Amino acid sequence: MDSLPISSPTPQLNGRQRQPWNSFAPARVPTIFKRLTRFHQMDFELAAWQLTYLCISPKRVYRNVYFHKQTKNTWARDDPAILYLISACLCVSAIAWSVVYSYGFWKAIELAIVMILRDFLLFGCVVATIIWFFANRVLLSPPSHSTPEDAKVEWAYAFDVHTNAFFPLYLTLYLAQLFLVPIILKTRWICLFISNTLYLAGFAQYIYGIYLGLNALPFLVRTELLLAPLLPLFTGYIVSLLGFNVAQHVLPLYFGS
Fold first, then answer.
1. Which of 110, 184, 221, 228 is most buried, by the most CB atoms less than 10 A from its CB?
2. How far apart are CA 19 and CA 10, in angstroms?
3. Could you tell me where the beta strands, DSSP code E, fall in 154-227?
């Protein structure tokens, strides 16, 4: 008598295998983090080009995603050079903000560490996990013969999307705001308008950057849902113009003064 099979075969959907519930689990350590110490393999020139075009024409950066997938069979970048460039930019901002708030040497070092580890990396890991889970659960296109079996969003790619979206936010809130501090902290309404518009622009750029990153993947649908946070953001902006200066509340909270 034939023995019963130990495990049941994986069901098929329209020619494509149904992926188990845990198939979307992210890799333990993304390649970009494994190569943090391989400086001789990093292309800082390409990373600088990407940062430039993330501000000028972000869609052009995501056109290279298809080439990267064809050559390395992964959507996510494996070169951590861009992480070092953004970290260097945050260090420069930390020094400048330390001058504004009259911080000492060690306080400036602490501020740089907070900006890099908390604002950029930790916040990025949280956002990447959220959009990775949301994209794989909600935005994946229905299975079909034309859909590849590996059609899923990599966690490392979700972190890439955060990295790309973070740089315009950095230019707006970490750099431009620095030069506008003498204006945006005043009590006049026009100063309130400039302050709140600055924060609106920064977070709107970030949300739009997240949308562009996931919209570049051909197997995702309904990516316009990622623009939904713009509605409460803009609503809050309109309400804040009645007398709530965002910078007057955020900066003392952030810098503790």
1. 184
2. 8
3. none
